From TrEMBL:
Keywords: Aminoacyl-tRNA synthetase, ATP-binding, Ligase, Metal-binding, Nucleotide-binding, Protein biosynthesis, Zinc. The keyword DNA repair does not apply. This is Glutamyl-Q tRNA(Asp) synthetase. Zn(2+) binds at residues 109, 111, 133, 137. ATP binds at residue 255. Belongs to the class-I aminoacyl-tRNA synthetase family. GluQ subfamily. Its EC number is 6.1.1.-. SUPFAM superfamilies: Nucleotidylyl transferase. GO terms for molecular function: ligase activity. Binds 1 zinc ion per subunit. It comes from Paenibacillus spongiae.
Length: 323
């Protein structure tokens, strides 16, 4: 049987400017797809509307294009699975919620933020999402739920299974997440906002995504997404979680690391080819930073060339960017 075409995606959240860290993820995801002759999808993950801004979504598209990336489907060009903007896809998420409800997997959770913070010192927990939920509201009776609903709108949680979740990560290797590591997680917040976990799984499945390449910080979200795929009867993609670029403080590169925003680099006259070459050199694709276009890297891309450890970006490394 012939394999379906490779379909990958980049899915930025327009809550901040694109910086060299998420640009690297975009470039590597694009290279993975282009080197396999596949289709690349751009999806705007603005489901958490209060945190997102339309002008940042516009800026992200402009930054990606300026760097030399292109996409076959996306918010600006449409495609067979439109819309490519999460805030326009809410009916799909509500359908999925209904299905989870029918499967008997959801329950309302009335715990406050303060109560959840009290379990913050629990030994396990998702780095991307905080501590494991101890299951406080899982056992409430229908009467207790009705009583609580009078003073509080609940969030909705999915009951996690009691078995371990295992998968082979194409970059990080074989993974095993014990049943105790994830806990029951929120699929719809009390304010009605659909969780990242649900939206991303529904969308990747609906858009026929076969390969997800993203940062290592989302590795521990993957068992949750696999659980959603399984419960919703959807086909899961393959995953590759690549080590992150870190700031000198050891934290994931972000806005607080000034000067890393692509728009700022562009305004300072740094050429796109220098940024691409810099990323390629620090991703095992070139021996040293030299100006290059993304399409010149397609032949060189191999997942196993990407270093296995996170990279701390020093000032000296950043100076390489100015040529
Ligand atoms: N929207 C997420 C972010 O910007 C990425 C989601 C994903 O790649 O699964 O962090």
């Amino acid at each position: 049987m012939s394999q379906p075409p490779v379909r990958g995606r980049f899915a930025p959240t327009p809550s901040g400017l694109m910086h060299i860290g998420n640009m690297r993820t975009a470039l590597l995801a694009w290279l993975q797809v282009r080197s396999a002759g596949g289709q690349f999808v751009l999806r705007m993950e603005d489901i958490d509307k209060p945190r997102c801004r339309p002008e940042l979504a516009e800026q992200a598209l402009a930054d990606l294009r300026w760097l030399g990336l292109d996409w076959d489907e996306g918010p600006d060009i449409g495609g067979p699975f439109a819309s490519y903007v999460q805030s326009e896809r809410e009916s799909f998420y509500h359908e999925a919620l209904e299905k989870l409800k029918e499967e008997g997997r959801l329950y309302p959770c009335f715990c406050s933020r303060a109560e959840l913070l009290m379990v913050a010192s629990a030994p396990h927990g998702l780095s991307s999402e905080g501590p494991v939920y101890p299951g406080t509201c899982r056992m409430l009776t229908e009467e207790q739920r009705e009583e609580r609903r009078k003073d509080k709108t609940p969030s909705l949680r999915i009951a996690a299974p009691s078995h371990d979740i295992c998968f082979d990560d194409l970059a990080a290797g074989p993974q095993r997440f014990p049943s105790s590591s994830g806990g029951d997680f929120v699929v719809r917040r009390a304010d009605g906002i659909i969780s990242y976990q649900l939206a991303v799984s529904v969308d990747d499945a609906a858009m026929g995504i076969t390969d997800v390449l993203r940062g290592y910080d989302l590795l521990d979200s993957t068992p949750r997404q696999l659980l959603l795929y399984e419960t919703l009867g959807l086909t899961a993609p393959r995953f590759a979680h690549v080590p992150l670029l870190l700031g000198e403080d050891g934290k994931r590169l972000a806005k607080r690391h000034g000067g890393m925003a692509i728009a700022a680099m562009r305004a300072n006259g740094i050429r796109a080819e220098y940024i691409v070459g810099w990323i390629a050199a620090h991703s095992g694709l070139l021996d040293r930073p030299e100006p290059v276009r993304p399409d010149e890297l397609v032949e060189l891309f191999r997942l196993d060339r990407i270093p296995k450890e996170p990279i701390t970006v020093t000032d000296a490394m950043l100076r390489q960017l100015t040529g």
